[in-house]
Design a protein that fits this description.
Helix content: 40-55%
Organism: Streptomyces roseirectus
GO molecular function: ATP binding
InterPro entries: P-loop_NTPase
Bound molecules: adenosine-5'-diphosphate, magnesium ion
Oligomer: single chain
Radius of gyration: 16 Å
Strand order of the largest sheet: 2-3-1-4
Distance between the termini: 25 Å
Structural class: alpha/beta
Keywords: ATP-binding, Nucleotide-binding
CATH superfamily: P-loop containing nucleotide triphosphate hydrolases
Largest sheet: 4 strands, parallel
CATH topology: Rossmann fold
Strand content: 5-15%
Number of helices: 8
Protein name: ATP-binding protein
CATH architecture: 3-Layer(aba) Sandwich
Amino acid sequence: MATMFLMVGLPGAGKTTRARQLAQAHRAVRLTPDEWMIPLFGLLEADGKRDVLEGRLLRVGLEALAGGADVVVDFGCWSRDERSAIRWLARSAGAGCRVVYLPVDRTTQLARIAHRQATAPDETLPMDETEVLLWRERFEEPDAGELAGDEIDGPPAGWAGWPEWAGARWPSFA
Ligand SMILES: Nc1ncnc2c1ncn2[C@@H]1O[C@H](COP(=O)(O)OP(=O)(O)O)[C@@H](O)[C@H]1O
Ligand SMILES: [Mg+2]
């Protein structure tokens, strides 16, 4: 059975570093939207284009899983709903899903962001400290059930299923 590794964590947590290691160890396809957004737009978010990009990358990932390859989804996935949707989609492609959560305290996070800016300026964009601290409030930590791969929640009220929810969250997915 193919495996999807779902990276979860804030900017600077070390997701892409770990994603590269996992991709090498498992000969997996790694999907890192930052590596597309920066060359294409010079931005991490540009008018909803990141959502469009992520929807297409998700499709590529599901096709790779269905073809038997392991996949590393390096989106960040701050919300539980995003994670539930992607876990459900991986399962429906006949694959397993492992949530890889990298917690990071605020001091370490700021130090790693600064380190990356200094050592790999082409792979990142300057981040404002106030904004980084606001992001910490918005991030929904995965719980033990998600990390253990427990049963996946249903979609929020009003949604027929996770595919429909995913088509709204990532417009190019539908
Ligand atoms: N486990 C670690 N210990 C120390 N530094 C790390 C670790 N993981 C990543 N880093 C460094 O922290 C910075 C951010 O890592 P990165 O993987 O780009 O984070 P993310 O993809 O979560 O934003 C990089 O400079 C990276 O080299
Ligand atoms: Mg990254």
